[in-house]
Design a protein that fits this description.
Blueprint: H1 2-9, H2 39-57, H3 65-77, H4 85-103, H5 105-118, E1 125-126, E2 132-137, E3 149-158, E4 163-166, H6 167-170, E5 174-177, H7 183-189, E6 197-202, E7 223-234
Length: 235
């Protein structure tokens, strides 16, 4: 998993150091299977393939291999790393963020195009944050605050129309604190009154962001929710 992999890489402080351009090409040695002669050799090679597999699965396709190896050597031999721990973590985070955006560029573009077109639809309103909504049914009474707990029915779908969750199907409305849900819900439900039903179009940065949620919601997904506010339970 990505989290475990990052934890494994944290001591390797120098592999993300500044890229260096060699003035003269260096002939790279090719290691053959015959070089694996004992358990340490096998484990060493296995660490390399395991790390590379995890990196590729998270969208990273290449590294500065010389600096990667230098980072390993410096750490094992106790040399002062070329990067501080803060810069190391920042470099790793930036690498994964860039790789992730590249990997999911299609989903990001799909969401952006959808929202651009959707905001032109009659009845759709857009807030300053980029949240879009349409009122399906008006309610009455007071609006909830961000510190309130509310009870609501809802259905959530991807842009493809695939449903990933529904309290209606379970016949079980959800009681939830508005300050502990995705930002799109925190903002959107405060616009509602008890008895109302809204349809929300939530950009990924107000939903589950670059991580997504489980197997059903990919990273960078724009989501659609139909939400019915049943009651405000108070703080």
């Amino acid at each position: 998993m990505k989290t475990a992999f990052i934890a494994l890489l944290l001591p390797l402080t120098t592999f993300t150091a500044m890229a260096q351009t060699k003035k003269h090409p260096v002939k790279k040695a090719v290691v053959k299977a015959s070089a694996i002669k004992n358990g340490l050799d096998s484990a060493s090679y296995a660490f390399g393939t395991s790390m590379a597999t995890n990196l590729k699965n998270n969208g990273v396709t290449a590294l500065n291999y010389e600096l990667f190896i230098q980072g390993l050597k410096d750490t094992f031999t106790g040399k002062t790393p070329l990067l501080s721990s803060d810069k190391t973590q920042t470099a790793i985070n930036n690498l994964f963020a860039g790789a992730s955006k590249k990997k999911y560029a299609g989903i990001i573009a799909e969401g952006k195009t959808f929202l651009e077109n959707n905001k032109k639809t009659a009845g759709v309103k857009t807030t300053a944050s980029g949240l879009q909504y349409i009122v399906l049914k008006e309610g009455s009474g007071v609006h909830p605050a961000a510190t309130d707990t509310v009870t609501a029915h809802y259905k959530g779908t991807l842009l493809s129309g695939k449903q990933f969750d529904s309290s209606y199907d379970r016949n079980e409305p959800l009681a939830l604190p508005l300050n502990r849900v995705i930002p799109g819900w925190t903002e959107g439900i405060q616009l509602m009154q008890p008895g109302s039903k809204y349809k929300f179009f939530i950009p990924y940065n107000l939903a589950y962001g670059e991580r997504g949620a489980g197997q059903d919601i990919p990273p960078y997904s724009t989501l659609i929710f139909e939400v019915e506010l049943l009651k405000i339970n108070g703080k």
